[in-house]
Predict the 3D structure of the following.
Amino acid sequence: MDPAGRARGQGATAGGLLLRAAAAAKGLREDLWGAAALPWRSLSRIPKREGLGEEDTAVAGHELLLPNERSFQNAAKSNNLDLMEKLFEKKVNINAVNNMNRTALHFAVGRNHLSAVDFLLKHKARVDVADKHGLTVIHLAAWSGSLEVMLMLVKAGADQRAKNQDGMNALHFATQSNHVHIVEYLIQDLHLKDLNQPDEKGRKPFLLAAERGHVEMIEKLTFLNLHTSEKDKGGNTALHLAAKHGHSPAVQVLLAQWQDINEMNELNISSLQIATRNGHASLVNFLLSENIDLRQKVEPKESPLHLAVINNHITVVNSLLSAQHDIDILNQKQQTPLHVAADRGNVELVETLLKAGCDLKAVDKVSAWTLLYSAEMVAKTFLLDVSLEQRYWNILCEMGTNWRNHASS
């Protein structure tokens, strides 16, 4: 049998192994970067509808509210002043807490019910109660964005510097929810610049604004001199956080003041790699237009091209190739992007990389077997473009011959 025939046979055998291995890997493979937890998970538990929320469901034998107290809280949720007044006349405890340690005032403030809030404050409702997550009514007012409610709570003596269990204060919540008028009130009227502190994740309000992509908030915090180039506990700057979520307008605003577009986080990951990994094509194109460095000074685990291939972002792959990204760059496993695409069984990406002129001989840095192992998957691209076949098999035969000579020596 001629060398090409032997190579084809070896490729076909290895191809079966590849398909089985790829199928197993598909079920086991995790996202390299993990899923980011919601930065305001406590607020996600605030009820959004009338009636009983999940947080109010009685835990067997542990419900704290009496029937009238439960009715009073429901009335506060729905801004039902008539019912609130009737229950108040019956001496209901307006400060009663449910199993989440929330009072009627929590619900009235969280839903911006001005009348209910006014009623409760006039009847001396407590403004300092924190729920099981450390949320106070001042946090909810900042989160919901009602300046009227905020003014009422401050007048009633609410703690303006209170923090929840995540180390977040009113400025964090207002920033995260993009309520510029609340930020202006806290900083310019109440002069609470000391609220500009990192939370438990090491994130100051400026980083939260960038993470959410709030351009107006980023500009306002910059104007108030509350911007920062500091990193959070994960080693990310505002630029990295904005890139992670594909916020192109926010990235553009940040780069107007940022000195180093190529800055790495603690994992030696750049904003380009973050955007590439998450498939944010428009942001990748913008960063490439800003002449971001494709040849980094440190060796990451995966190059931007590897990350785009791993996550099957074909548009991003094409953008990187158009920007002259090194098509034969090796990752820490000594694999080229072609190896990764072939091992994952991605015919479309294999075709793209072959057409872009990747150097098939580059696999000699690993072994001829790697190329032979991927041969079946790569060969599938010939069904789409037979013009690649001759170049591929010529090199494959050459590699196979060199490999056999090396093995016999």
